[in-house]
Design goal:
single chain, alpha+beta, about 25% helix, globular, iron-sulfur, iron, electron transport
Length: about 60
């Protein structure tokens, strides 16, 4: 799986970083999403799905590799 983020859509709520801080962070410059691990381990699928579903602006997408 691969995580894709659209910083143009991101509103910087930080739900992704709160849900999975090992996978997401926020830019120091503008607070938008930073994907730390674009291809996370299979053991973190539930965390990624949680972050994607909690994103209020729908800036995150989870794609199959």
């Amino acid at each position: 799986m691969r995580i894709e983020a659209d910083p143009e859509v991101c509103i910087g709520s930080g739900m992704c970083a709160l849900t999975a801080p090992d996978l997401f962070d926020q830019s120091e410059a503008d607070g938008t999403v930073v994907v730390l691990s674009p291809e996370p381990p299979a053991a973190r699928v539930a965390a990624v799905q949680g972050a994607v579903s909690r994103c209020p602006s729908r800036a995150l997408t989870l794609r199959e590799s």
